[in-house]
Amino acid sequence: MSADYLTDLLLVVPHPDDEVFGLGAMLARMAAAGRVATLTLTRGAAGRTLGLATRAELPNVRERELRASLAALGVQDVTILDHQDYVPDDDRGMPRHPGLAGADRAALLGEIEAVLARTRPRVLFTFAPNGSNGHPDHCLTSELTFAAFDRASPRPEALYCFASPQPFRGPQREGFMALDELRSLAVPVTHVSDAGAELTRKLSAMACHETQALSVLGFMRSNPERLVTETFHRVYPPVPRGAAVQKVETL
């Protein structure tokens, strides 16, 4: 790794559990070989509780779940912020909230830039502009992380985001990005990686998110192939149009 960089990879996501579904095996592999860092912008206060915690207890519980997940993956450089995540309806026992869109945009960008400057990653990773599923927190995290990448000095040598080989099937939730826009902003898969021996660590990390067990099971039911195969899009440097998908061990 060049002297310009201190970290092999920095992952920026909005919620606890975003770290593991599409990147868990890669994080485990890269953490075993070098230094990996994560930045999570919320503590997931708007998630389901499944009766395992009170609404007031949930942020602390989900932070513990996140730390356990990252420990299972071998990630030691962990930053967790406490912004409110998106509250789509009033059946969560809390008032509706715009989530990250309600935060001070400049301040939020500054927090991402501060972690980027501290960790100086060779590779920066986040959501695609459509947030994969149109979740407003995912989309804004992508937008601000892309902006932080453009402004960084030194700039990471590569920027990647999640990419799915299958189009989003819906149905779309109220308040999320409209399906037409979501599909128009979808990015193609440029890189693919087999989970391999890291699959067991990925599954162990997923199992740490007990309060979000329905989301874990939903992912396993609708995207079983993505447990064993992780797919990405390289934003920068751009991949030539029509280039073959590259199989990689690390990013």
What would you say this structure looks like, in words?
The structure is a single chain. By secondary structure, this protein is an alpha/beta fold. The chain has a single domain, classed as LmbE-like (Rossmann fold), CATH 3.40.50.10320. The protein is 34% helix and 18% strand. It has 8 helices and 8 strands. An 8-stranded mixed sheet has the order 3-2-1-4-5-7-6-8, with helices on both faces. The mean pLDDT is 95.
TL;DR?
The protein is of the alpha/beta class and 251 residues long. The chain is 34% helix and 18% strand.
For the largest sheet, list the strands in their spatial order. Answer: 3-2-1-4-5-7-6-8
Strand content: 15-25%
Tally of structural domains: 1
Identify the CATH class.
Alpha Beta
Q: Work out the helix count.
A: 8
Shape: globular
Under the CATH scheme, the architecture is 3-Layer(aba) Sandwich
Order of helices and strands: EHEHEHEHEHEHHHEE
Number of distinct beta strands: 8
* Largest beta-sheet details: 8 strands, mixed
Radius of gyration from CA coordinates: 17 Å
Residue runs with pLDDT of under 50 for 5 or more positions: none
Helix content: 25-40%
Q: What is the element layout, followed by pairings?
A:
Elements: E1 7-13, H1 24-33, E2 36-42, H2 58-73, E3 77-83, H3 105-119, E4 121-126, H4 136-151, E5 158-162, H5 179-184, E6 191-194, H6 199-207, H7 213-222, H8 225-228, E7 229-236, E8 246-247
Helix pairs in contact: 2-6, 3-4
Please name the defining characteristics of this protein.
eight-stranded mixed β-sheet; alpha/beta; 251 residues; 8 helices
